[in-house]
Known about the structure:
Blueprint: E1 2-3, H1 9-18, H2 25-35, H3 49-58, E2 59-60, E3 66-71, E4 77-84, E5 87-95, E6 100-103, E7 107-109, H4 118-122, E8 124-127, H5 130-147, E9 159-162, H6 172-183, E10 195-199, H7 203-212, E11 216-220, H8 226-232, H9 241-251, E12 260-266, H10 274-284, E13 290-296, H11 310-322, E14 327-329, H12 351-364
Parallel strand pairs: 1-2, 6-9, 9-10, 10-11, 11-12, 12-13, 13-14
Antiparallel strand pairs: 3-4, 4-5, 5-6, 7-8
The protein binds S-adenosyl-L-homocysteine and iron/sulfur cluster.
Iron/sulfur cluster binds at residues 110, 112-114, 117, 119-120, 166-167, 200, 220.
Amino acid sequence: MTNLLEFDRDALAAFCEQLGEKRFRATQLFRWIHHRGASDFEQMSDLAKSLREKLAGRAVISTMPVISEQASSDGTIKWLFDVGAGNAVETVFIPEVDRGTLCVSSQAGCAVGCRFCSTGHQGFSRNLTTGEIVAQLWFAEHRLRDTLKLADGQRAIDNVVMMGMGEPLQNYAALVPALRTMLDDHAYGLSRRRVTVSTSGVVPMIDRLREDCPVALAVSLHAPDDVLRDSLVPLNRKYPIDELLEACKRYLSAAPRDFITFEYCMLDGVNDTPEHARELVRLVKGRVPCKFNLIPFNPFPASGLTRSPRERVMAFADVLLAAGIVTTVRKTRGDDIDAACGQLAGEVQDRTHARERLARQRQTIPIAVAGGPP
Ligand code: SAH
Ligand code: SF4
């Protein structure tokens, strides 16, 4: 059985052709799947019965099993999906006053192994398929429309960030068709500015993304010099800061936004002094149009690191702001359910833990989303 969530619209058209159908049927089918959230071919009333039967014999529309759903007191919702062989990935919905953001995973685990990241500590299990990436959005969007009782045509998610588990640019082949589905007007119709790929700096793939499917780009910088960055983001040894910044500059020629977002995780006593901030200014100023997003470190026991105190984060931001660089400090969301940045670990190997999550899930449904999307 083929899972139709694996296909962008072009690939679905090719699949329809294989079934002896006209390519344009794919558009109808695509709309049923992604606009309407249909998973049963019988529902698709404007498709010929013969096609529906053919599809039912060959294809499914299905998500990975949901192990748990947890809602935070701030409205954030986290789902844990079972991706088989003891692996799980997490997806987080973050409601804001003016938009609904979904934080999507691209891999089970991550091979980059950043020191401050819980996913990195877990090691790499496997790449997600296109269908598993898209399924996170498909499931969350339609689940939220139901639970939030949204009117027809209203959508719950209008912003996607590839900031869940994994390094999206190390799963490039699966990522691009997934991005295309997110952008497709017959599916989610998200604006290129509202789909963000976040990367630790896979330089050749930044160049390919610029050619194949330019969306907003966030780069996880975390340090102003190679010695420090080597120790925090091991991939820096392969693609050092200079090369990374040049790739960022090239990316801007095709990017839907005229700046790169640099993410910078604030680690107490490691990368958070005013001198680090001044070095950053010297590094990027006049070279890469950018914004900085400072992320308060979300601790987890194995990291041995702690969060920079608030005053130090503010002093750091002041140095960047004084140099004319737009700087924001990320609000931590969902930390009471371990859904904050860098806390996603997909702990399914510990089955006992999974059982606890299931118990909590029963307590947290139905979802009450405070300050949800319009
Ligand atoms: N692999 C990609 C995307 C996933 S991580 C990347 O590294 O960009 C998404 C963001 O969360 C990155 O900016 C990452 O540096 C940040 N992050 C990871 N661990 C964190 C932690 N413990 N606290 C705060 N932010 C963290
Ligand atoms: Fe991987 Fe990103 Fe975590 Fe680094 S921060 S280990 S690249 S998921």
